[in-house]
Amino acid sequence: MSEERRLAVLRAIVEDYVHTREPVGSRVLTERHGLGVSPATIRNDMAALEEAGYIAQPHTSAGRIPTDKGYRLFVDRLAEVRPLNNPQRRAIETFLSEAIDLDDVLGRAGRLIAQLTGQVAVVQYPSLRLSGLRHLELVPVGGARLLVVVITDTGRVEQRFLDVGAGPGAEPAVVTVDSPAGPAPDPSALDEGTLGELRARLNAAAAGKRLDDLPDAFARVVAGVDPTLAPLARGIADLVVDTLGAQREERIVLAGTANLARAEMRFEQGLSPVLEALEEQVVLLGLLTELASEPGTGVGVRIGHENRLDGLAETSVVASGYGTDGDTVAILGSIGPTRMDYPGTIASVRAVARYLSRVLPS
Amino acid sequence: MSEERRLAVLRAIVEDYVHTREPVGSRVLTERHGLGVSPATIRNDMAALEEAGYIAQPHTSAGRIPTDKGYRLFVDRLAEVRPLNNPQRRAIETFLSEAIDLDDVLGRAGRLIAQLTGQVAVVQYPSLRLSGLRHLELVPVGGARLLVVVITDTGRVEQRFLDVGAGPGAEPAVVTVDSPAGPAPDPSALDEGTLGELRARLNAAAAGKRLDDLPDAFARVVAGVDPTLAPLARGIADLVVDTLGAQREERIVLAGTANLARAEMRFEQGLSPVLEALEEQVVLLGLLTELASEPGTGVGVRIGHENRLDGLAETSVVASGYGTDGDTVAILGSIGPTRMDYPGTIASVRAVARYLSRVLPS
DNA sequence: AGATGGCACTCGGGTTGTGAGAGTGCTAAG
DNA sequence: CTTAGCACTCTCACAACCCGAGTGCCATCT
């Protein structure tokens, strides 16, 4: 009973099942795939594969379907990567390069993956934590508030309000709502000239730095500045570090959720749990990060129960990092039923990740 | 055959059907609602209501269910608005006021509506077109490019790249991808001092202005500036007007799509068309804008086929505008099956819209 | 005139029974 | 080790069937 043929049988089962969505029996296996042996032989092999946990049968007298373990073996050793053809590549490239800003690029990438794979696409925003600081802007807005705008070198823009009404030494608070009647601010701290100088100093110290290096750089600025300005400078510095460090703001965009409802992907448990899992952006992010740190071709695959999320027990996740010149600044991927076209999905995800990396502002 | 009682019967049918999700017959109608007449009488009324097109029966010998027209009559004349109780109001208020920036506020509003109504929530970003300009920032970034950051008085921040490498007179182009080897820029146009002056002038001219007034204000600045700077100034002005005017960027956020998959809202056509409609953000936006311009309590309702989108033929949309001091800067709402709890949904949407208006940066 | 009770009729949905087909495991032979 | 044959099991599709809910209509009552 040759080991090779057993694997060939597994591959045939996976491919056939992915294609027909129906349990596959020994007869069709010999007919549709050129295995050159009789059904009875196949049956023996299938019994062995089932014993080893690679396939299972939904009920007696139905064909076999691959288990999670079977799919795993398939993607690890049996799947042949099938690169996209040229027109497809071209289409990806032009569609992405027509984007107008970061939001647009990521939105397009999502729609692209959703359309290429016919599944759900997830695209993570470039992590602030991993981005460098490109520019820092200070804008005084009515009263005692300062708008701090942070621009990263991945093109992302974040803004926060800083309340500078509080006296020196007090911890400046992040606010969104005006207190209806705040204390009268000290206008001197907010005049354009002073702000301009502060902005110049902070920018000079911080430009291009990564988050890890920012606190030190800012500390030097705070030390070198006029003592009356020091609290303000420190407030701004803290706010910026806080903004870049907060993983709360690790946003992701979804696309193609409508694909989930298509008839050809019926989930056993209904798609309620899947949709719920997709809304849990925090958990989803965790999953993606975990996934991108896997070795291999750069594309990570989680199959069925391999991902801890219960809602995704019937789905597989294919994800890849992306980012300028080799640095992974974020992750994108595709989510579909475990019974998915792995080679095709992997190829699509990888292709979009590559072109996205190329198109990102550098 | 009293007109009043007929309406009472319609109301009872709607309420019962919304509650039980099953066609309601004459018997249960007399039992569960205190109508004080016999089933036979009810049957006569129902025949009349059916004749008038307010109710229908899915098949012979099943109870009646309301038609779109029936729901319409119900919300217009029969529904009693049921205001939220105090703890609920409190919860909304505190949850919204904990938000940290605009993205967060809108995200929270969405989750709030989704949870209160058990349906899908849509929240439109404050329209740039209706916003005033709070501040304009110019940031030189590597080479011949300028980053223009626009901050509106609704707290929204937009950024665009401007390519200033082209000679005077040429139309500056919006770019996202670097040409690998661009022409050497004229560095003099981008030095900090000049930019600072330009920024100051533009801001002085434009601060607080609405989109409609911007072109004139900018024109005056362009005219009054050093001739060598005029092309640059005009480029920036055009870009800003273009940015604020583009309805392309009218983003919306969705929440609670998982609610669609809950068993209690089975759609006849499946939820595929619904999900697809929700992904068509452009069309969805059109629907919302159309909807908010309706008179009445400030909350607009579209029932079933009333909204043109085919995918939403089995759903109703409840929407309300929101915005600081009476101005509607954007719209938010809830989407669910036509068989929804209209009074409850209307109350929730209205409440969230009000508190959101209060919490927005003014 | 409007409300009511009675009654025949219709129809959808659930239950049951049956037969066909697909697929398997096992055993014995090539 | 492969193959053919065979008995066995189970699902699915189909048909027959009954039951109950609900209706429409008509004669009767107030």
From TrEMBL, chains A, B:
InterPro entries documented for this protein: DeoR_HTH, GAF-like_dom_sf, HrcA, HrcA_C, WH-like_DNA-bd_sf, WH_DNA-bd_sf
Span of domain Heat-inducible transcription repressor HrcA C-terminal: 103-346
Keyword Transcription regulation: yes
Key words, A-Z: Repressor, Stress response, Transcription, Transcription regulation
Ranges in a coiled coil: none
Occurrences of domain HTH deoR-type (ranges): 35-62
SUPFAM superfamilies associated with the record: GAF domain-like, Winged helix' DNA-binding domain
Domain of life of the source: Bacteria
Purpose: Negative regulator of class I heat shock genes (grpE-dnaK-dnaJ and groELS operons). Prevents heat-shock induction of these operons.
Family: Belongs to the HrcA family.
Protein name per its UniProtKB record: Heat-inducible transcription repressor HrcA
